[in-house]
Amino acid sequence: MQHHEEPLAVVTGAAGGIGRAITAELARTGHRVLAVDVTDDADPAAHATLTADLGAPEAAEEVFRGIEDRYGLPGVLINNAGIYEARDFLDYDAASYRRVFDVNAGAAFFCTQSLTRRLIAAGRPGSIVNVASISGQSGSPDAAYGASKGAVIALTRGLGQSLAPHHIRVNAVAPGLIDTPMAARIPADRVADYRARIPQGRFGDPAEVAAAVCWLAGPAAGYVTGSVLDVNGGLH
């Protein structure tokens, strides 16, 4: 196991638009970033890329065991892995429902559990930031997506309290409409409606989400835990 001066951070869903921006911003602010995704298309600023399907509950433990053995113990975890599909509520079957929850809520649950077990055993502090969504606050026509992101918000608030005695902070960002490949899958008529309702009149940039994530992850937010930071251009 190698020891380095730079803090070690893990970003899940690192190949997505927001994940790539978070990876780049963490690297820019002095972290060694381990990028985890089902594909290896991470930002080149990543220290290393790990491929895993975090929708499988046992995958998190395998990933973090390997990280600890090879790179050491991360002090920062960004739970950004997520899937979205525009599927009518009446068209969901059990498998598609479970997949959305396993990736969007389950990955955050089990990755946080795998890391915090190790941090607590080592007596080390940590900072975890979950990427939720405005859909988890106000609901969404994409019912499973909105419900899964609501679960992420409730998880954030609960763990912010229960992990605080261990000096582990847990926060979330709730992005609104962000200019990413995932957002490109939202039906066009809804996109026009959303854009008309955003007070700032535009979609957000992934770098704007990354800046909020990195602030929450870092020492400047040392007294912030169990909180959800809106990054949505004023949309409510």
UniProtKB/TrEMBL annotation:
Organism placement in taxonomy: Bacteria, Bacillati, Actinomycetota, Actinomycetes, Kitasatosporales
Pfam families, sorted: adh_short_C2 (PF13561)
Which family is it part of?
Belongs to the short-chain dehydrogenases/reductases (SDR) family.
Q: Tell me where on the tree of life, at the top rank, the source sits.
A: Bacteria
Protein name in the entry: SDR family NAD(P)-dependent oxidoreductase
